[in-house]
Amino acid sequence: MMPDSKNHKLKVRSKVWLELEGKPFFGEGRLEILRAIDRLGSITKAAEETRISYRRIRGIIREMEENFGRPLVITQRGGRSGGWAAITTSAQDLISRFEKQQIGVKKEINDTFELLFNDFP
Hints:
Blueprint: E1 18-20, E2 23-26, H1 28-40, H2 43-50, H3 54-68, E3 73-76, E4 84-87, H4 89-117
Helix pairs in contact: 1-2
């Protein structure tokens, strides 16, 4: 039985990620982690917000940095003034380029979808 086209509207969805030597390197999840660290200044707070364990986030950062060949997050351990974390200019550049890529891909996908399915029942 076909759905009633008046009650259901087709939508297109896509997921884009970057690969390095055939292995996933950067995508929406890792983007969310770096954004949270940048905004909150803390890996612990980023872990709480993203609901990803601190240990897992540290592992993801370490893996990305090893594969990328440069630091993406810098940290200062606690003490009297407390610890902090910040993303590097390399991470900021990666985020900026990835977001621009996402915008371009989504525009192309939406334009193509509109062209192909504009009059589809």
